[in-house]
Amino acid sequence: MAETPSSPIKSSIAAALREAASPSPSAPSSGSAEKTAGGANNAPPPPSDFVTLKLDGREVQAKKGTNLLEVCLQHGIDVSYFCYHPGLSSPAVCRQCLVEVVGQPKLVPACYTPVADKMDVRTGTPRVLDVRRQMLEFTLINHPVDCPICDKAGECSLQKHYQSWDHESSRSSTPKVHKPKVQDIGPHIMLDAERCILCSRCVRVCDEVAGVKQLTMAWRGDREQLTVAPGHKLDNPYSLNTVDVCPVGALTSKDFRFTMRAWELFTTDSVCPGCATGCNIEIHHAQGEIWRLVPRENLQVNKYWMCDEGRFAYKDVRHKRLASSRLGMGHGQPAQITSIDKAVAFAAERMDRLASQGATLGLVFSAHVTNEALFALSLLATRLVSRGAEVRTYVTGTAPRPERADNILRHADTNPNTAGARLFAGPHAGDAQTLLADLERKRLKCVWMVGTELPLSESAQMEAAPLFDGLELFVCQAVQDTPILRRAHVQLPAAAWAEVDGTFTNARHMVQRIRKSVNPQGDARSHLELISLFAKKAKWAIDEKWQVSARQAFLHMVGQVTAQPPGTEPKPELVAGFGKAEWGKNSLPVQRRFAHSQG
Ligand code: SF4
Ligand code: SF4
Ligand code: FES
């Protein structure tokens, strides 16, 4: 019988029969499904990865295996905790996260209890709140409460939980147990054992992240103390992660302590320039200065961690800076300070003349420069060729250090953007050795270095510097004053990585965003701005959108890079990261105020 629109019951029955007759796409294939004699499928539904539970009366779904604490936090339920960290194992030692599960006689630690189907969890009953206060009171019994002089104040979990959940005066009149203060336990870290709440997060960071057992607990009861073994130091390459995860001010960084209060800092998201891993970081800055770098969660790159060496990358932003543009005679003779406009106009006019005479020009793509600037340089390379020049490209950067590589985060390549530099310099680009060899054989008339990073020590640079004296025109865009820069006819001050917007491509070809956190030093401008100025002065590319901003250059670059047919040079894996690249928000720096401990 034909279905008609006027018989909805019949049509729904027909639809159900059709569905029963045809195999469901999610049903298991033959063999696993039980069939009745009549052919109907009575198999139970495939097991779901999710369970349904109640949180304070609200029904929620959670992935199997997730702990209760994570689920509470995901749903905006504030459960206090100290020892739990999402990147570490859960020993449930602090008992601060106790919650009630209906049907269970005792309160359970939320960080240690996996979710189960039909669980009914209460996080705010009088019983739970009372225990939460008691646990806080217990933790505070021997804590010195020296917040006014403690470096962690303003970002301390104990201070925050006390304000949120307790706020009562101490009921204890017995003297506090005193423990050692100001203990130098490693090259970067001081320990105040009195402030330690024995959560063991730092011990687990060493054991589980760095893979070395350098911290442990000694003694028992109220004498228990965190310590390093006698004669040993907390000196692993990831030691400063212990400071991030310490919920209180027991572990402090020698570099940061007594510099700034946490609430004076602003935070800008960026990427570490220390190596090709590209750990995600926050730049903490105030008053135009960077005060520290801390890791930012990215489960695909660095999880919650970064290495100690990367933390100090901010120091280079103020180190030996070239702050104004200079014009000179080359050969290392003193150069005269001039305006950027004049210096670029001079260089652009001479470079254009050399190009039109068919000279061979060398363009240096530094692996410390953003993709956007290198992309712009590659566009100008094609303009120079169309003017008649022969263009040779070179990828340079700081020297690899195989001894620093591990299977955790640290990479042997100490440049943040080698993949990007290789992509934009082209498949036939040389390296620093090729550049020096070409200079020695006097194959180049002009060199334009965008970034002066070379795999040479300062003394080796001094030795190599005279090789640049044979050039008719030597232009350098540099962040720092180096022996090579001093041989240049045109010396242009470039902004450092923390002073610009842009992207770096890491060793796994992930294109990651860096953001400007502080203003450039002196007259310095981003490499992209300097290259745009060249394009305008030489009239190589007028009013092209990539010259407007780093974001415009990024959009233009992603379109061009991803348009390359797969399988053609450059290598598809170098191009792949650009397909997923996003510019992201241009957010204003956020002031840190009672943010949780980092990590
Ligand atoms: S030093 Fe900090 S992280 Fe380590 S056990 Fe003590 S409170 Fe926890
Ligand atoms: S591993 Fe590399 S990218 Fe990560 S923090 Fe260290 S130096 Fe920076
Ligand atoms: S956070 Fe759960 S017991 Fe410490």
Q: What features would you describe in this structure?
A:
The protein has helices at residues 8-21, 68-74, 126-140, 157-166, 201-210, 241-245, 308-311, 340-356, 371-386, 418-425, 432-440, 458-464, 527-537, 550-562, 572-579; strands at 50-55, 58-63, 98-101, 108-109, 120-122, 183-184, 189-191, 216-218, 225-227, 251-253, 266-271, 280-286, 289-295, 325-327, 336-338, 360-366, 390-396, 446-450, 473-478, 490-493, 502-505, 511-514, 590-591. With 599 residues, it is α+β, with helices and mostly antiparallel strands. The chain folds into three domains: 50-140, Ubiquitin-like (UB roll) (Roll), CATH 3.10.20; 147-154 and 176-318, Alpha-Beta Plaits; 337-579, Rossmann fold (3-Layer(aba) Sandwich), CATH 3.40.50.740. Strands 15-14-20-19-18-16-17 form a seven-stranded mixed β-sheet, with helices on both faces. It has a five-stranded mixed β-sheet with strand order 2-1-5-3-4, sandwiched between helices. Strands 13-12-11-23 form a four-stranded antiparallel β-sheet, with no helix packed on it. The longest helix has 17 residues, at 340-356. Residues 1-40 and 594-599 have low confidence and may be disordered. FE2/S2 (inorganic) cluster is lined by residues 81-84, 92-97, 109, 111.
Radius of gyration: 31 Å
The mean pLDDT is 90
CATH structural class of the largest domain: Alpha Beta
Compute the number of structural domains. Answer: 3
Largest sheet: 7 strands, mixed
Count of helical regions = 15
Q: What is the strand tally?
A: 23
Catalogue the ligands. iron/sulfur cluster, FE2/S2 (inorganic) cluster
Q: What is the CATH third-level topology name of the largest domain?
A: Rossmann fold
- Main-sheet strand order equals 15-14-20-19-18-16-17
- What is the structural class? alpha+beta
Query: Helix content range of the residues, please?
Result: 25-40%
Give the second-level CATH assignment, the architecture of the largest domain.
3-Layer(aba) Sandwich
> How far is the first residue's CA from the last residue's CA?
67 Å
Which residues form runs of ≥5 with pLDDT under 50? 1-40, 594-599
Task: Give the overall silhouette.
Answer: elongated
Q: How large a portion of the residues is in β-strands, by DSSP E? A: 15-25%
